[in-house]
Amino acid sequence: MDAVAHVLHNLRRVAAASLPPRLALLSVPDGLPDDHPRSVRSLRELSESMFTTASAAYRALLLSLRSGAAPLTCVVADGIMPFAVDIAEELGIPALSFRTASACSFLAYLSVPRLVELHEVPFPADDPVRGVPGMEGFLRRRDLPRAVARAEDGVFDPMLLTHAEGIAQAGKARALILNTAASMEGPALSRIAPRMRDVFAIGPLHTTRSAGVGSLWREDDGCLAWLDGHGDRSVVYVSLGSLAVISHEQFAEFLSGLVASRYAFLWVLRPDMVQATSAAALQEAVEAAAGGDRRGRARVVEWAPQGAVLRHRAVGCFLTHAGWNSTLEAAVEGVPMVCWPFFADQQINSRFVGAVWRTGLDMKDVCDRATVERTVRVAMESGELKGRAEAMAQQLRLDVAESGSSSSDIERLVGFIKELSAMSCQA
């Protein structure tokens, strides 16, 4: 039987019945009290706790599993927690690193020491960046990963270097697994490969997983029926993911721009998303801005079944934070994007959407109603954006089909793990 180990806080939020029955659910504490918000504002505190309390509990868990009846043959560890690979290998358990972000952002993180050497630190400016190989022609300082939500001019956050050093630890793993496809990120993959023992590009994974996968948020399926009442490509879908937080002023600018675009919109507004504003107040503001006709012009939900929403014929564009999962889901469905990245890898993902793949528009570091209105209108009405998005979707479907590049890498990965298992059993 396979097992998934997660922090106890998250496992409590996922219904076990929604996960595949072959998976045993295991947990380790993250070291924070139950009432801790675990929000983006406390990522540093959470990271420090994970590297102390959680890493010790993880070591104890592996020791107990190693001495159990069923042999522990290998570990596939979250690439953002390098201690998971280090501890497993130290205990003689082969470990693979699974990074859930894009290959382009992974390469950027690997390049952080060089960026520091060149004094090319992230901040909102259009200065060209020379320190990330293969991206010299289009990458700007504003596109670099940020350890904080909004970078200040000339101020380097040392947490970014710490994070980059941790990501580089993937080179110690038996292999690096990335949720991407060679057709999307071939150049970045080719530059990453020499620094890893092996690389497997097996995405987009959401196209192959079972439908019954747990979510940390309760999805509002009623929004699908609301979409049914709208015409083809007539609705803007808005979601800034599970971590982004915005000010009330930013919320007001987004809302005014969406209303001014004159398109209907479905907006995911988490209860903790807009600072110092209740969910009820947000809904009232949206209803008032939409002329009292929130039911027809606008729909607000706390969380949406995003895959089904993006597949819906009524959705014409996706205003997104450009998190990698959201970027892949939109790419697979051929939906043009408007990107407003919040932090971390989202910055570089949005640049690739706007300047490399050209399947959407990059709106980073700007939040005013006129820009929101303009970019939404272009994304909804541009035949060129829609055509490129549909072409990428068609290619990604070929990648995950039988004999496609991602499908072939999955088969190669299965064989790789079987070899590790055979060697482990012989040891």
Encode the helix/strand succession as letters: EHEHEHEHHHEHEHEHEHHEHEHEHEHHH
Biggest pleated-sheet summary: 6 strands, parallel
According to CATH, the fold-level topology of the largest domain is Rossmann fold
Number of domains: 2
Cα shape: globular
> How many angstroms separate the termini?
20 Å
Q: What is the class of the largest domain in the CATH system?
A: Alpha Beta
Give start-end ranges of low-pLDDT stretches. none
Second-tier CATH architecture of the largest domain: 3-Layer(aba) Sandwich
Let me know the number of strands: 12
Mean pLDDT, all residues:
87
Total number of helical segments?
17
If strands are numbered along the chain, what order do they take across the biggest sheet?
Answer: 9-8-7-10-11-12
Structural class: alpha/beta
InterPro entries: UDP_glucos_trans, UDP_glycos_trans_CS
Enzyme class: transferase
GO molecular function: quercetin 3-O-glucosyltransferase activity; quercetin 7-O-glucosyltransferase activity
Protein name: Glycosyltransferase
Write the layout of secondary structure elements.
Layout: E1 2-7, H1 8-11, E2 23-28, H2 43-66, E3 75-78, H3 82-90, E4 95-99, H4 103-110, H5 112-117, H6 158-168, E5 176-178, H7 182-192, E6 199-201, H8 222-228, E7 235-239, H9 248-261, E8 264-268, H10 279-289, H11 294-297, E9 298-301, H12 306-311, E10 315-320, H13 324-333, E11 337-339, H14 346-356, E12 360-362, H15 369-381, H16 383-400, H17 405-426
Parallel strand pairs: 1-2, 3-4, 4-5, 5-6, 7-8, 7-10, 8-9, 10-11, 11-12
Helix pairs in contact: 2-3, 4-7, 9-15
